Amino acid sequence: MIIDTPEVQDINSFSRLEYLKEVYGMIWVLVPIFTPVLGITIGVLAIVWLEREISAGIQQRIGPEYAGPLGILQALADGTKLLFKENLLPSRGDTRLFSIGPSIAVISILLSYLIIPFGSNLVLSDLNIGVFLWIAISSIAPIGLLMSGYGSNNKYSFLGGLRAAAQSISYEIPLTLCVLSISLRAILDIVEAQSKYGFWGWNLWRQPIGFIVFLISSLAECERLPFDLPEAEEELVAGYQTEYSGIKFGLFYVASYLNLLVSSLFVTVLYLGGWDLSIPYIFVPEFFEINKAGEVFGTTIGIFITLAKTYLFLFIPITTRWTLPRLRMDQLLNLGWKFLLPISLDIHDMFPMVTGFMNYGQQTVRAARYIGQSFMITLSHANRLPVTIQYPYEKLITSERFRGRIHFEFDKCIACEVCVRVCPIDLPVVDWKLETDIRKKQLLNYSIDFGICIFCGNCVEYCPTNCLSMTEEYELSTYDRHELNYNQISLGRLPMSVIDDYTIRTILNSPQITSE
User: Fold this and answer.
1) pLDDT tens-digit readout, 272-316
2) Which of 61, 162, 164, 326 would be a feasible disulfide site paired with 56, CB 3.0-4.6 Å?
3) Regarding beta strands 429-435 and 440-449, do their DSSP bridges make them parallel or antiparallel, or are they unpaired?
4) Smallest Cα–Cα separation from 139: which of 114, 171, 162?
5) Structure pTM?
6) Distances (CA, A) of 29 to 23, 24, 40, 86, 296
7) Which of 94, 59, 134, 140 is nearest to 380 (CA)?
8) Those residues with Cβ within 8 angstroms of residue 32's Cβ, 6 or more apart along the chain or in another chain
9) DSSP assignment of 118-178, as one string?
């Protein structure tokens, strides 16, 4: 059978077209999967950059500014660095639990994004039990932390995992009870019920005490200060993540910010009106005629409003991190079980209940006053001008008592070794030989290792010939630490006064401050 050439070309073009359709179908299946993941990743990077910028403003620093414009790629650079670092496994730990723990912590939080509505018709899964599904899924994350702590075979890691489990149980119950009265409906209906009365219809004004309880419980669920007991560095080194490195450590880092983002999104949806932006007596969508512009534009505006409220709310937990000190473990449990739980159990009749607990009521008023004063101090620092000296372009003139590099005069040294005896770490090395004809020591070599020196100044103070003296040079960083071992030639170099350094610019002469 002979087939004509045009027929063969038609068959090839048809098969090529079918192949392209299959490839297009496969790509279209992957688009709805990777789009939310990409959006969530960008959101986490934005939170990291926002936290660093706000923290820098509060602490009068400049913050990240080199990695990308305004330092927005700093978090991406950190993640790339962790991705290429070596993954270490504990020799006597349970490697399976050690490897599964970070994955459970991240996956359980990622599943929570399925039920978050970003717009009126933009939700991956609209369930009647949406909020409770989030609470149930988020309770799985501490299991991953407990597995990580147990699999590390480290007492600090295990204590961190136990603290995470105890903290999660203590604050999940108040978190669930305080939203019980507003979440017995589909999550889309919660936003629509708030939008009927505009700005004053938000659940923030209907249940202010519930909002405060939800805020405190969500901070505890996210393990943010003052509730970061599972990873308290002063007590547990790094808690459950002490033995982790590389990408596994990065997964814990990502999980904490994912949890913070999802908690802020739920606060926006449950208490702040979601995608509805209504001012009293003026409905913004109708004012700007957004409804007439099409469904796509309206959905885009809804996403923008939701994210704007979320990131504005994130200012509270970020500021809290630099305002309140960490609680003790007993204080954390007492706050959850003895205070937040009774309030959330009877949230509608809270005021009569607080009068019954008069002691707790007085403590609450006192704590609220102190917390308010702390936030005022923190915010007042945020308005000040950063005075960070950008080393090495600008330096501060050191004080007269500053102890820098030691200057040595070879001709004055008599090799008495007093400097060796008074040094608390026996650091100076003195090589000499005895001249028998004149019965005196002759100095051969003298060296000091500035990589170990603590600059206590004892050698300078007790030297009988004043051959040692302190200088104002403190730039002793090198690529090889062995280069910090100075011999008599390096020690004998004449010191350069800091005042004569052309890179010096005092704070008082800074153009930014003089303009103020």
Assistant:
1) 888 877 654 444 445 445 444 456 777 788 888 888 899 899 888
2) 61
3) antiparallel
4) 171
5) 0.67
6) 10, 9, 19, 34, 21
7) 59
8) none
9) SBTTB-S---TTHHHHHHHHHTTHHHHHHHHHHHTT-HHHHHHHHHHHHHHHHHHHHHHHH
